[in-house]
Amino acid sequence: MTLEGHHLIGFTSQGGSTDGGGISAINPVSGETLAPLYPMAGQTEVERACQLAEDAFLPYSRLPVADRAAFLEAAADNIDAIGDTLTERAMAETGLPKARLEGERGRTCGQLRLFAEVLRSGDYLGVRIEDALPERTPMPRPSLAQQQVPLGPVAVFGASNFPLAFSVAGGDTAAALAAGCPVIVKAHSAHPGTSELVGRAVQQAAKSCSMPEGVFSLLYGSGSELGQALVKDPRIQAVGFTGSRNGGAALLRTAQARPQPIPVYAEMSSINPVVLLPQQLEANAEALGDAFVASLTMGAGQFCTNPGLILALSGTALERFVEQAGAAVREAAPQPLLTPDIHTAYQQGVAQLTDQPDVSLVAKGKATVHLACPCQPHLFRTTANTFIGNDALHDEVFGACALVVECDSVAQIQQVLTAMEGQLTATMHLEEADYAMADQLLPLLERRAGRILFNGWPTGVEVCHSMVHGGPWPSTSDSRTTSVGSASIQRFLRPVCYQALPEALAPDSLKADNPLGLPRQVNGKR
Amino acid sequence: MTLEGHHLIGFTSQGGSTDGGGISAINPVSGETLAPLYPMAGQTEVERACQLAEDAFLPYSRLPVADRAAFLEAAADNIDAIGDTLTERAMAETGLPKARLEGERGRTCGQLRLFAEVLRSGDYLGVRIEDALPERTPMPRPSLAQQQVPLGPVAVFGASNFPLAFSVAGGDTAAALAAGCPVIVKAHSAHPGTSELVGRAVQQAAKSCSMPEGVFSLLYGSGSELGQALVKDPRIQAVGFTGSRNGGAALLRTAQARPQPIPVYAEMSSINPVVLLPQQLEANAEALGDAFVASLTMGAGQFCTNPGLILALSGTALERFVEQAGAAVREAAPQPLLTPDIHTAYQQGVAQLTDQPDVSLVAKGKATVHLACPCQPHLFRTTANTFIGNDALHDEVFGACALVVECDSVAQIQQVLTAMEGQLTATMHLEEADYAMADQLLPLLERRAGRILFNGWPTGVEVCHSMVHGGPWPSTSDSRTTSVGSASIQRFLRPVCYQALPEALAPDSLKADNPLGLPRQVNGKR
Questions:
Q1: Is residue A457 over pLDDT 80?
Q2: Is position B304 annotated as part of the catalytic site?
Q3: What percent of chain A shows pLDDT beyond 90?
Q4: Which residues constitute the domain of residue B483?
């Protein structure tokens, strides 16, 4: 499959001007520029993609769910069928290892297939029905029925760190398409070739399944121009974004300044605190140190759930943990960061931490001259009072960089957790003898995080029904939803109530004899 | 029960300065000022109410749901027990008739009791559980469980037009308290005495049920000072508001400009289109005209769901409808508007419509000198092209004022519906011979409105499980939720996932043997 370097707009593939500069991927291992050169979308491309999406919305949203499910499955099959071409291009563009990318491809296709199941089960429609009570006094009750309907066309921003699972056909795209919303993807500029390959797989599925043309488009361009133009467009009704805090906040401001504000689901920033409770730490300090550094350095630490903050009580057990973790950091093999920009930001973040008063370096990883964008992992330490008093220590450093915060009491751990911003995850390592202390911390963790782990590490995010990958600001812009798992379809839905709906006009989901066999709440009972 | 004219902050009742002016209700029938004079809350009162709410949050949110349910029921019992004192004060402050206020009191107490039921059923927790798969390859799966948790302290703004059901102990307060969120109410300045009576009933219930002190506070003050201060306060985590478009938009801007933005559920503006389909109109033009005017003039038209826009095809049937409706408007008895401000805005809105080109007055109601703030109902007519071309005709005029829009084809009805902003409701009057046309309109109505009615009038809003009182911007600021019915509890919740949660630390809702008997989704099945 040859890369064309074209925007995919509806069923067409079209080049564009690269006069003002185009987009090329850079291999973060070798530093080489990868062909082809991709054009930058302008107002013409945005207009056409948005109008096609708008035109597609009503027909697409009203298709039988089985047809939408078949489309998602065809997209998954097409992505699988690209085979090594996809993983090899993704390796070249991201520097991520093959096994990781194969796993990520499986996850991406699995997400699409999961949403096909979600559609067929129909639970996501949230049907509630109340029968008419014509004899009720003083006023009769008409029949009432509620179900979820899709919001409208959605703009999705590909993320740098998951070139498949949070990108062109990633979680937000799968959830929005499942919900019945056409999707326009802004490709991440770090992996345009991977984006094109996946985009063509989705485009081909849309064609072969006879979807309305505008159900999917893929555009290349900058965040400040293409990204802003999409979020401003009145036809776009919701936005999915995974990236930096500044990037997410800028999109949110634009969305809120529209004549009609729209929801923005931005995942932005998290340092993912891990609390080591004393009995567990005493029993397993060295094993915890090794496991922590394995999680910290996986994928050069480029995960939104990377464990960036360790909290524990002072003492010899903590010193054993720090010593072991420091040794593991020093031994960690250098890995490539995804892009030159991320490399620069990592270096700046590390330098900023190094410069903070009362913060000391525990260890750093090996340097290398063999990578264009290397990550040299860093581990720092400080005290609770220093952490609480210095907001600069609360910022995420994207990449393998963490801070151990030494606390002198449970109360001080509680103060640190209270001073912290919202997080995607929070973790406790504990054994039974720690449960009483854990009971005191759990309410604070629930308030600050979307997922709470016990005796695990936050870097794995299971795609399932119970997952919450989300959390209070600034980890996300909307703590009421998740970006991973079947519940993420709710991002792109809103409820509608039908009052005294004639049976002949009722969609199958609301018909009296329930022809789709949906799970429904009827008169308050399931 | 004597009115004290005091803020209710936690379990205390405290006066305040009225040096800079205070708040007095005005009887809109007689124009007389009603004692007592209420103080205006300043930073001291906001600080104390917010800190108490913050302190109450964790203990309140972690109470057994049965305790929260008992508190809601005690509040309902206490409101009922105020008896005629409450309805009489509300009549004096609003000019609304006794029967309406008695009905509204029943609805208000019914809402509180409905949420007690919702709590006991536990469905609102949305529990999803997935068991561990320790043998899974290549990676084992930890156990995962998701449930909803409350957002934190909530600020609720009382609405002018429902002094009980959308005010101190109205829908948002009931939903937030049920969700586990402490509530601070900003009393609407038009009915401070009604607010105090209801506030004391809730305060007394909180005391007698041994709730944490800060679970409820009631403050008096202006939107620009007290309202803004509450929305800016970092301890407030969500806002419920029903009122004007300008007022809602101002709160939204403030909430979004916070270092940590928060959700604002503002219900603002809706003209509630009603489409009269041709066969039904032909058969029942006169009856429809009478029923329309009854809905239009009920409560002087001061409903967010007031039918402000009639759409129909030109022809003799429409002329019969207009003639009948015009006659009914001319006969409509004058009724008081709620406040001098609403009276002024109504007069301005009517004057603005009168001045628009190609808009003609069909009829207006009787004038009166016996009311301080009279509503003289108005009915206007225009053409579809005029409506589509003039945004001023799309604005809500709060009160009994409506516009008939004459269309020359179904396509033109579709154009009008497409040109329209988001609405709380949309209605079709139809008979079987109209179903084919209704099928063409229904998708457009679903896109524009939160509730779609058939052969009814939108002014009644049933409190039940299936209701959606919400809709796309500007009818509300967040179309993904409802402000009426049991689903409104979701406004104040967010999901949390627990990974490998030890059974000993699990809340009852997530324990393996389901001691609360909750409806739960387990491994993808209910």
A1: yes
A2: yes
A3: 97
A4: 31-268+479-492
